[in-house]
Amino acid sequence: MATLQVKNVPEPLHQRLRGFVQAHQCTLSDFILAAIERELGRREWEERFATRSTAELGVSSAFLLDQERAQRADDVRS
């Protein structure tokens, strides 16, 4: 397994990280690895999403969202 070292971490950030992992009962390594994995996955998704072609819906997406929200509000009231 490879080792990764991060240098020049500002002290305030380091303290926040230490406080977070202590409060959530995990190790700094576990937290950092999960954060890296999550961010890498997000970046890969953005790259895949950027290559997708657009779809013409015939109406604005804002209009469709408003309709869906209104329908959900009606369902909740019923």
General description of the model:
The termini are far apart. The radius of gyration is 21 Å and the shape is elongated. The longest helix is centred in the middle third of the chain and has 24 residues, at 28-51. The chain has 3 helices and no strands. The protein has helices at 11-23, 28-51, 61-77. With 78 residues, the protein is mostly helical.
Secondary structure: helix percent = 55-70%
Based on Cα principal axes, name the global outline: elongated
> Helix-strand pattern, N to C?
HHH
Gyration radius from CA atoms, angstroms: 21 Å
The pLDDT mean sits at 94
Structural class: mainly alpha
Number of helices: 3
Total beta strands: 0
Q: Main sheet, how many strands, which sense, barrel? A: none
The portion of residues forming beta strands comes to under 5%
Low-confidence stretches: none
List the defining traits of the structure above.
single chain, 78 residues, mainly alpha, 3 helices, 69% helix, elongated
Briefly summarize what is shown:
The chain has 78 residues and is mainly α. The chain is built from three helices and no strands.
Topology:
Elements: H1 11-23, H2 28-51, H3 61-77
